[in-house]
């Protein structure tokens, strides 16, 4: 059974997550920084009246910071009760992935990606990384010690 | 046809409202009677009685109950005169007034029982009519004309009747005073705020008016209230009621032989306690209105919020207690009973919390009470036949949400009748019933949201016409069409050209539902068949008065109640080695000055400008001591909807939540004390040089 996925790009690499976990996609016009939040949190954005945190995929993946452009997208994902956005370089494609083409990631990828990539899918000639959205988003709270 | 036929649908709402008015009128009349016996004036009760009858008359006229209108009219007329005479009524007037109220009550009961109100007794009407001249005779003769020493700023804000009331009090041998109350956070903590002060002062005096003042008032605070009173109480008792100095009492009586022109004679007020002209903050704060009726109690929402705050403090305390007990248990102490009590305590707190939350809930049905009248008016104005169906059941909504939501619903209903529904002729030509339908239903959803659906069976939104008016391509989905409809400015163009379709104020509707309340707005429309709007709104929101300011190019908000004072930053002393922390002088004491920009930036290696600029500062108490937070610019004060940040990623100390100031971007609502405590602690540990204890 093919599962619909949302594809997005970060620093030239293609990633994907199940469309069922994605609420919507929004263009990115900047976020309101939150002092004391983990460094991979770009800040807050308002999506249809809701205020949600946005995780910067580049910072999270340990990549050089990018400049927001017209292509930048916030992939708004649902994580149980939580709604969190993921800031990516672009997101244009939605496609069905055949489970038979999805493989566990090679050990080197696992190590390099800090567990953010949980599988790799072959789409024609392209390799697409399936991200572990809960892990990417993380639960790390404030970096202020002893407060929580 | 009194109270029947086309008004039958309004009758329940009318009866409920009238019941309350009658109850308060009776109470006020008793107070008046009591005062009359003692030969005193009772201006406040007379005024309230007058207002109640005035409203009663208006409501009764609306549902066309002529007998009640007549009785109320003559009562109102004599009370108006009494009000102008400083609240003085002759003893002979009490009995007819009592009878008048009784006559009204009797007829209200008749209506409630489904009967027709019986005609007003002619004899009673004549007696009531005769009251007017009697009241005039009883009015105090101004043997000794008393002039008010009202300063120019006051004079313009006093209604003639208020002026007369003050003068009447003076003539009657009472004192007319101005009592200043200066709120502060210490006082608020002791339960002393303008509302409690009103109550306390009301026991000693008749409050004629309460004027909020801003600018440098007595005691250096930026906000104060002047209460204008008539009283026989001693100065000391009055001062005590407002919490002592910096409060002050001043007579409003002009010295003998003073000039007529107000302003000319305003003596220079002592020690800089002047009331700056044009320092008017707001319109007169409305008298808090607590009326009893039908087992209902009206309470100011701010008091419920206060209760909520205390509850929050309890919850925090309980978690400390839990930790302490856990530590005891670990140390081997016998804590079984303690633990059981703690659990019980936790349940009680939860129950208390939901009880307080329930207090804030109002029935949606009550909120929508106005809509039938609105539709009735629209029916007349447009000449369209409209049926309004309400299907709201027992759903409840937080008062604050309801208050914001109602204007959006009014907009939508007005649009539906104005634009969506066709004329009876058009409808018949289209094979529809000549009477248009507007249907409003609502139900609570499990997710803590209330869903309201407003449906009409009108012509539907003409996507092409809207696209043309908006100068945009024809939208291909209902969402896109709604986006277009919600474009600000679309309305005016449509309104001007009378293009069919919706648009009037849709941007406002969206703003309220989506941005202010954090809800959702959806639309479905079918040409010729009608349009349905669906609004999902949260059942509760948190509102607060906030000071909005700018710091390092960003806007922030902070709760007014937490800010002790706003100051201009000048004369900063920067002790060597204090890590950029400065000291400012405030009433003879040194207060540490922290650059907020620096503080906010402290997490990221801190390359904020070391000079720690900032022209203004907010003084906040942090663990009991004042600390000044320097910011760039103050932008004003406004009420905001606080959206708590629930995600663990952004739940950080010092950030109470976010709000939307209207730009669609979240603005942080800061808790400066917590921010300072959390972030300065860090800095201190990071660099031992930062000892800045003053």
From TrEMBL, chain A:
Transmembrane segments: none annotated. Pfam families: CheW (PF01584). GO terms for biological process: chemotaxis; signal transduction. It comes from the Bacteria. One of its GO terms (cellular component) is cytosol. Residues 2-142 form the CheW-like domain. This is Purine-binding chemotaxis protein CheW.
